[in-house]
Design a protein that fits this description.
The protein has about 425 residues and is of the alpha+beta class. It has two domains: about 180 residues, no CATH class; about 120 residues, Histidine kinase-like ATPase, C-terminal domain (Heat Shock Protein 90, 2-Layer Sandwich), CATH 3.30.565. The chain has twelve helices and seven strands. The protein has a five-stranded mixed sheet with strand order 3-4-5-7-6, covered by helices on one side. A hairpin with a 3-residue loop joins strand 4 and strand 5. Helix 5 packs antiparallel against helix 6. The longest helix has about 80 residues. It is rod-shaped.
Length: about 425
């Protein structure tokens, strides 16, 4: 009925079972096709209307077996040769039928038609055209020269049409299969690309959250350790100062818990309750960060060169975390009581330099991911980072970060570096 969505037809179970059986037994199907072609070649030319006018002779019946056998044995290994042989056999059968009084029928060349169809499936368009035209010309020429008949008789036109149609159908089926294969390949590639992109984004997000957790834990745990050690040292001699240090330790742990909750909250799903809404830290919180280190006895000086400029959220967070990690490393590894942080603003870059005056080698410890995380942060923001010992003693971390998300022009970047 009009306006109704047509129902999807269900495949007939009998047909489905037969199709599965045919796919499992291809040679049996080939034999069945050869037998059907032989029957058509033998009996179709003997019919007038719906009656057999003359029984086929033994010679004609045996000769009709040859193209079917050739098709059965050589269609997979020698498709071009099979087309040529079956075409000639079809012409000979037409001649034999004419000599014994049969009406010529295109079915005597049925093996040639099937061979042309299979050739079109397995080769290209040029080969299909050449062999289709060659078969048609051969059959018409044999019908005219050997049969001494008139040109363009109805049987000749039918044979010509069938030959060309077989090649055209084979070419059409081959193109259809190629199109479907290309569509499936594109779909698989698109699916594979989507999976790779999803995995890449998940990996980047995991790395980013891992850096955040590392920076938060390393900073606050280092401060908490220093404050607890100081409180334990002052507990016997100066209990009042020890109490103040314990209060500072409570504040440090509370701050660590808040930042951990904010970072872990990024892993929540959309719609989950208690999702943290606090903004990410940046250079605006640098004084509080410096004050937290001064509580452990580290004296930090901050200097700013150039006019302060607005930073993108990613660059602001990156700069803050690099300063935090560098100062945390000073408290953990360097035999130093002082450190300096220098910020230099240019037209397109923010330069950060964190140094300490540690004398002697750094304290030995297990290798960590502090420097690796700082470099990854700088690279993700479009900048670079270098770290190493200074010739005059101590350690230095230097990084340059772009003020904007776009990359600076090469010549302007070079001028700024030369000016330094």
């Amino acid at each position: 009925m009009v306006g109704q969505t047509p129902r999807k037809r269900k495949r007939d179970p009998v047909f489905s079972d037969w199709w599965q059986w045919a796919r499992r037994h291809p040679r049996a199907v080939d034999v069945a096709i050869a037998v059907v072609l032989w029957l058509f070649a033998v009996f179709s030319s003997t019919l007038t209307g719906a009656r057999i006018v003359r029984a086929p002779t033994l010679a004609f019946s045996l000769a009709a077996v040859v193209p079917s056998v050739v098709l059965l044995l050589g269609q997979h290994r020698f498709p071009r040769t099979v087309v040529a042989v079956t075409t000639v056999c079809g012409g000979v059968l037409a001649l034999m039928g004419t000599r014994i009084g049969f009406d010529p029928s295109p079915s005597v060349a049925g093996a040639a038609l099937v061979a042309l169809y299979l050739l079109a499936l397995r080769t290209d368009l040029r080969t299909t055209i050449v062999y289709s035209v060659g078969s048609a010309v051969t059959l018409i020429a044999m019908s005219i020269c050997l049969g001494r008949g008139a040109l363009l008789r109805p049987d000749q036109i039918g044979t010509l049409s069938c030959v060309l149609l077989a090649g055209a159908v084979g070419e059409s089926v081959r193109n259809r299969r190629g199109h479907l294969a290309a569509v499936e390949a594109r779909a698989e590639l698109a699916e594979h690309t989507r999976e790779e992109e999803a995995l890449r984004r998940v990996s980047e997000e995991r790395t980013r959250i891992a850096r955040e957790l590392h920076d938060i834990v390393a900073h606050h745990i280092a401060l908490a350790h220093a404050q607890a050690a100081t409180a334990a040292y002052l507990l016997r001699s100066r209990p009042e100062q020890a109490q103040d240090m314990m209060d500072q330790l409570a504040g440090t742990t509370s701050s660590a818990l808040r930042e951990l909750k904010a970072t872990v909250g990024l892993l929540r799903r959309e719609g989950d309750p208690e999702t943290p809404l606090e903004p990410s830290p940046g250079l605006a919180q640098l004084p509080e960060l410096i004050a937290s280190f001064e509580q452990t006895g580290l004296v930090v000086t901050v200097s700013v060169e150039g006019e302060r400029r607005a930073l993108s959220s990613g660059t602001d967070l990156t700069a803050y975390r690099i300063v935090q990690e560098a100062l945390t490393n000073v408290t953990k590894h360097a035999d130093s009581a002082t450190a300096s942080v220098r910020l230099r603003y240019t037209r397109r870059l923010l330069s950060l330099t964190i140094t300490d005056d540690g004398h002697g080698p750094r304290t030995a410890g297990e290798p960590g991911y502090g420097l690796i995380g700082m470099r990854e942060r700088a690279l993700s923001a479009g900048g670079w980072l270098a770290a190493g010992h200074r010739a005059s003693g101590g350690f230095e971390v230097t990084t340059e970060l772009p003020l904007e998300t776009a990359e600076p022009e090469p010549h302007q970047d070079d001028e700024e570096r030369t000016a330094r």
